């Protein structure tokens, strides 16, 4: 009985001491710069406790046939390491994750797995509204036209 009681008591103490879980949602616009700069747009939803967070994001970049720049759609699950509280209104973070992508140009298409790393900062604007600045490097698996893709975005982030 003691072997069960000790872990249960330890878990209870940890839960009582942990800060409240937080969540946020981001709508973003940016640029995918690989090959040619093209507009990227998307949405991200996340949450976390203290310095560890997670998010799920979807992003869409349109193709530019004249520049031979493919469209790229990504769906990623990410882990964030961030400061537990903002520092002078700024909350920097580092992120890494994996998911899937679809790249298309003309009659070519590739759907496969991908990974990403990046980072950014969330800047408090007013109340729960924050501005989010984010930079990512995507590594596309399979046979994409461009296996490494860079994206920068600015988003409106709502914390709740």
Task: Fill in the keyword field for this structure.
single chain, mainly beta, eight-stranded antiparallel beta barrel, 1 helix, 8 strands, globular
N-to-C span? 40 Å
CATH topology: Porin
Which CATH class applies here?
A: Mainly Beta
| Approximate strand percentage | over 45%
Rounded Rg: 19 Å
**CATH architecture field:** Beta Barrel
Number of domains: 1
Count helical runs. 1
What does this protein look like?
This protein is mainly beta and 160 residues long. It has a single domain, classed as Porin. It contains one helix and eight strands; from the N terminus they run H-E-E-E-E-E-E-E-E. It has one helix at 2-17; strands at residues 22-32, 38-49, 52-61, 71-82, 90-105, 108-126, 129-140, 148-159. An eight-stranded antiparallel β-barrel has the order 1-2-3-4-5-6-7-8. The longest helix has 16 residues, at 2-17. It is globular. Mean pLDDT is 91; it is low at 14-18.
What is this structure's SSE topology?
Layout: H1 2-17, E1 22-32, E2 38-49, E3 52-61, E4 71-82, E5 90-105, E6 108-126, E7 129-140, E8 148-159
